[in-house]
Amino acid sequence: MAPLSFFRYTGPPLALPPSITRTFIPSPNGQLELLSAEPPKNTTPRKTPLFFAHGGCGSAAVWIEYMSYLAQNHNIPCYAVSYRGHGASWSPWFLNMYFTTKRAFAEDLIEGVRFVREKEGRDVVLAAHSAGGALSQYALSEGIGDVRVEGLALLGAIPAYGSADVNWNWMKNDPWMVIRMFFKHFGNPMSPLSSTRLVKNAFFCDDCPNEKVAEFRKRTPPFESFAWPNGLMSRFASPIKILQRINGWGDGERLLVLAGEKDIMVTVKINEKSTEEYRDAFKELVQIKKIDAKIEHVTEVDDSESRGEGVVLSIVKGAGHHMQNDLQWEDGVERLYRFYDQL
């Protein structure tokens, strides 16, 4: 799909590899694209499905590598939804999309989660990236659709306390962003990603080939919401409420914070701060007996991972913000699998 347009995309949907299936699910406003990856037919599938939530300027297709790998190598049923205006889902007109709120996108996300819950007969492990991580935290905190999850993985996710630092980091690395957006591209929110160079600067490590970045751009929408990121600037979710929406507490960890070492926006420092918020919330909930779990002190597994107090913090060495599409994606997906496997 061609980025930076003021018109809805009307061409054919993105071609998918044989390992991925596209279907459509109903929502109150239109059909939503649902991608799925099933384990090989001669294997026994894992019981708990993995559900992926994309971030801003993305689509369900950003998860193709992770979904294919986890289904084929670890027998996990995998699903990903595209919110309205993204991927092959129904699309509002430009101005309607411009003012679409985080609540509307969160409802699209929950429509997908509930569909898979009914199909598979059990709650999902939810893995969410960037502003999709914000949507997931917001939806769980607000109790949208009364959804619960078996585990929550936040990959380069905007922290629950707000995106001000994230936005500032992006602007520091692209100082012409605001001028370009409003004086060259007439306010189109896709302006910061209007070239392969800008996409690489924001989302990928320095060593990622331009050809790979250009291929990734086919998974991005022609325009984006401006109200969505503005609605995330200050605190939008409560870690206390989120942790209470996760099933199965006991020993071990049920929340993963996965960071890209070279992420220029949601930096390692921001991920560490988010982790501390969740660990503090976990300890409080255990102490007041709101969740039945054992507090295991934080231990350093190695220089890229720590575990304890309900949360795994793991750093993908060398990876940029879009770690699931960067050169190091196999390292990231294996870290996600280790978290899933210990649930």
TrEMBL record:
Q: Where is the AB hydrolase-1 domain?
A: 50-322
Q: Which Gene3D superfamilies match?
A: alpha/beta hydrolase
Naming one, the record's GO cellular component terms include: mitochondrial inner membrane
- Pfam families membership: Abhydrolase_6 (PF12697)
- An example Gene Ontology molecular-function term: lysophosphatidic acid acyltransferase activity
Family annotation (InterPro entries): AB_hydrolase_1 (IPR000073), AB_hydrolase_fold (IPR029058)
Highest taxon of the lineage: Eukaryota
- What does the record list as GO biological process? cardiolipin acyl-chain remodeling; lipid homeostasis; phosphatidic acid biosynthetic process
Annotated PANTHER family: PUMMELIG, ISOFORM A, RE40534P-RELATED
Q: Which family does it belong to?
A: Belongs to the peptidase S33 family. ABHD4/ABHD5 subfamily.
Entry protein name: Alpha/beta-hydrolase
What organism is recorded for this protein? Tothia fuscella
